[in-house]
Amino acid sequence: MLWFILRRCGSAVIVMFLGSVLIFLGIRALPGDPATVMAGQEASPEVVEAIRQEFGLDKPLPAQYVDYIGQTLTGNLGRSTQDQLPVIDIIAERLPVTLELSALAMLVAIVIGVGAGIVAAVRRGKVADYVATGFGLAGLSVPHFWLGLLAILLFAVTWRVLPASGYVPFTQDPAQNLQRMILPALVLGTGFAAILMRQTRSAMLGALSADYVRTARSKGLSEAKVVGAHALRNSLTTVVTVLGLQLGALISGAVVTEQIFVIPGFGKLTVDAVLTRNYPVIQAVVLITVIGYVVVNLLVDIAYAFLNPRIRLSGGSHD
Amino acid sequence: MSLLEITDLTVGFDTEDGLVQAVRDISLTLDEGEILALCGESGCGKSVTAMSVPRLLPPDTTRLSGSVKLDGRELTTLPEPDMRHVRGKDVSVVFQEPMTSLNPSFSVGYQITEVLRRHEGLSRRAAGDRALELLELVGIPAAARRMKEYPHQLSGGMRQRVMIAIAVACSPRVLIADEPTTALDVTIQAGVLDVFRDLRDRLGTAIILITHDLGVVADIADRAVVMYAGRAVEQATVTELFANPRHPYTLGLMKALPTAAVGGRLAEIPGMVPSPLSDPDECAFHDRCPRVQVDCRVSRPPLVRQAEGHLAACFHPGGQS
Amino acid sequence: MTEQAVTAGRAARRRRLWRRFRRRPMPMAGLVLVVGFVLLALAGPLVTGDPAAQDYLATLAPPSPAHLMGTDDLGRDAFARIAHGAQVSLQAGVLSTLLAMAVGIPIGLVAGFYRRWLDPIVMRLVDVTLAFPFLVFAVGLAAIIGPSLKGVVLALGFSQLPAVIRITRGEVLAVREMDYVAAAVADGAGDGHIIFRYVLPNCASPLIVQATVAIPAAIIGESTLSFLGLGVQPPTASWGVMLTTAQQYLSDAPWLAIWPGLMIALATLGFNLLGDGLRDVLDPRSGR
Predict the structure, then answer these.
(1) Range of lowest pLDDT (A263-267, B8-12, B275-279, C80-84)
(2) C9 belongs to a structural domain
(3) Rounded-to-integer distance, Cα A285 and Cα A291, Å
(4) Pairwise CB contact (< 8 Å): C243 & A19
(5) CA distances from A122 to A79, A196, B78, B143, C108 (A)
(6) Residue C166 covered by a domain
(7) Which part of the chain is the ABC transmembrane type-1 domain (chain A) (predicted)?
(8) Is the entire prediction scored with pTM above 0.95?
């Protein structure tokens, strides 16, 4: 198990390294002087020169990369060209908002998706199955941002039961915070619930027809135990894998959802940065997203190994 | 009164092509400590017959009539919650595929203690001690270490022994073994059969052994029912059956046995089993039967007494030798 | 098996698959939706007129006989813009998928054929590609080349690349194990012959199924990016751009938010139903 984790960590580090190289080269592929790009169009020559010195932009490329990584590892991600604030501070402020949204959406997705998937598999061919499957197809076909617009149209414009947009920090007023987060989380979570539901259903159908489930029934176990312990335990690996594969989509979804509900999170920061050509911020958010994505995938891999005794005990790889 | 009495059992399944009759009018009895073999080709209905006892057939599509009585208690109409107290406790099953019948995500110990805690109400520790005894009973060396292992770490023979340990954990009255040795190497088969014999001798468990292998029948069973196309065609004690097979199908099965092969060639029974969608009036075996006559094509021979304790469904049974 | 037998067998298989497919209601409904979407994209703009024509007397007008789907804030006909938006969606979906196939199939072939030294490099690069969530890559591209349909197609194509490479490589590895291919190799058939005669035909089914997954993802991806302002730019009519406008007039003109979203959902649903059906027919192993 330890060997397995170490190997996964090793390949994660390699992927992060290659990712950082790609980002580094991407910024340098921009037309014009990189120091000017990083400082912003309106920056004074002194500011441009300071940035050139700080990131060693007059040195050859490999040396520049070393400087860049060195600065990044010590937390210096440069300054935003909009307001000259350190990028690291901006991200520290925005990231928790997005994490909260994503966690809530994930919760919605798991509760609805796994629940509906299990029910659909157990009640295969019955009304509940058709309802769940139909929901799955619809959820897969409706884009997040349209669902968000419809939700605002219904809950905020027509029924006026929930605020349409805005954000209140959790630490300031938890009730207000949740009231404003519930709609975005539902919107973001529903699409993933649909994907999760389809995968859970098919994994559960497979498990329920497996020989070991027949064995569990022959032991006289209750149906709750047969489904909830024996079948579900073997479907969990699929669920975890799907969750891992959907992380990228969750990040994309969070960006869009924040834009619609005007939530000042990481995603909105990203879009605003692109629209204002705020390159230090773009470079940092892309890097952090890639790192976060690789790390969470690593955790998913480890969770997967933990759920599967073949990997947990052998220390081998599963591919 | 016998321990288990199956009377006029008929089982069908709803499919897209209509009702498929898997078992028709089977009646049989099983006494305490008896090993009864159900034999025939795959698809003859032997497994369906046996799985009707613990009601392990898909409830939505199964159409069942007739009676199954355990100790005089009717099982076919028993409410499902009560039935769950019968399964694993009074009637338990060893399945054909040891490779897939154990849950890959749970340790061997968990899978054995689970059934003990369910039916015997044992504590975790007491169940663990009992599971250890069971593993030793079915001949698993280093049982304490095996308890913590997972199915993928065990060989096929070991897994089948674990399956047997689970099945006998609560000292069942009836143990159903569905082709328990088919998936195993020949060398391991004998060991597993010894475990069954030993259990019968020590615990008095009655065993229904489902097999297509008459060699296994001769080795371990007391009595045998030969099935063909969903019906019982012959039923006798094993000594009587092998000495005086009456039904041409039974005779054909015996000729297909490797030990019976003369001149190194196995005899095959020519032809195909009729479709279970139709219910012909004639003898189901007439197309393949070497002794077929006009009457076999017109009506179906009833299962009638040929000798003491020996039944066969044939108009032209083989003579006494 | 001779080559003629292989070809004849494939033709017979296609006919059998089509018969099996035709009998199912859901995939057929999907096919109808997809055909409708393609027709709207190709023929729609010809009948609806100019999507940029402004009618200052009817801004934010509800649906009426003159404007079937109403008009937007500049008095432009929503139906004309929907039809032109369909064209943009179709372009994004088809072009990005073609791009991914054009780049991915050769890479997959080469990786599968020269396993020893190229395969590990290619597969590691695929891993790195997977570490970039689609939107992050799109953001990076938009930052570098500026927001445009070109950037959208590149980003979408790039994000499909790993799947195409994996499928092609997997088929190469599987096909090389087959007896009649091994026989052809033993007969001295060249790599090119093996690739065009055996490998590519075998890749067709999984790649078609992949396309039915990728095209709807691209349709949603294009509209998402355009909605965020990172894709197709106004005044070009794209379903995503239309929804950006609609968001500003949600309480005054809710119909503007309904039509584009509904079109995205129907087009995507069509491809999803079609894909599910094709997967069932082409690949019996993966039950749903």
Answers:
(1) B275-279
(2) no
(3) 10
(4) no
(5) 55, 16, 23, 36, 40
(6) yes
(7) 95-300
(8) no
A·B CB contacts under 8 A: 74
Q: Which of A210, A220, A234 is nearest residue B87 as measured by Cβ atoms?
A: A220
Residue B220 is assigned to a structural domain of this protein: yes
Contact indicator for C94, C215 with CB cutoff of 8 Å? yes
Contacts of A221 in chain B (CB under 8 A): 84, 88, 114-115, 118
Task: Give chain A's domains with CATH numbers.
Answer: 2-73 (no CATH), 102-275 (1.10.3720)
Structure tokens at A9: 């960590």
What backbone phi and psi angles, to 5 degrees, belong to B47?
Answer: -70, -40
Contacts of A290 in chain C (CB under 8 A): 131-132, 136
Q: Is residue C43 part of a domain?
A: yes
How distant, in Å, are the alpha carbons of A119, A191, A308 from that of A113?
A: 10, 9, 22
Helix, strand, or coil (residue B306): strand
Residue C218 lies in a domain: yes
Distance from CA of C184 to the nearest CA of A (A): 30
Query: Is there a domain that residue B45 lies in?
Result: yes
How many CB atoms neighbour CB C177 within 10 A? 8
Closest partner residue to A219 among B115, B150, B153, by Cβ? B115
Nearest to A142 by CA among C86, C263, C265, C221: C265
Instruction: State the Cα–Cα distance between residues A17 and A23, nearest whole angstrom.
Output: 10
The dihedrals phi and psi of B83, each to the nearest 5 degrees, come to -60, -35
Q: How far is CA A216 from the centre of its chain?
A: 37
| Residue B154 and residue B146 in contact, taking contact as beta carbons nearer than 8 Å | yes
Q: DSSP per residue over B106-158, as a string?
A: S-HHHHHHHHHHHHT---HHHHHHHHHHHHHHTT-SSHHHHHT--GGGS-HHH
Neighbours of chain A (3+ CB pairs under 8 A): B, C
Sequence-distant (6+) residues with CB within 8 A of A248 are A293, C132, C133, C134, C135, C136
CB contact under 8 A, C257 and A146: yes
Quick one: DSSP state of residue B288? Answer: G
Report pLDDT for B111: 94
- Count: domains in chain C: 1
C243: domain CATH number?
1.10.3720.10
Burial of C185 (0-12, 13-18, 19+ CB in 10 A): middle
Helix and strand numbers (H, E) in chain B are 12, 12
Residue B73 CA: distances (Å) to CA of A180, B47, B49, B53, B318 = 62, 22, 18, 12, 38
Which residue is closest to C251 within chain A, CA to CA?
A157
Chain C residues within an 8 Å CB radius of A249: 133-134
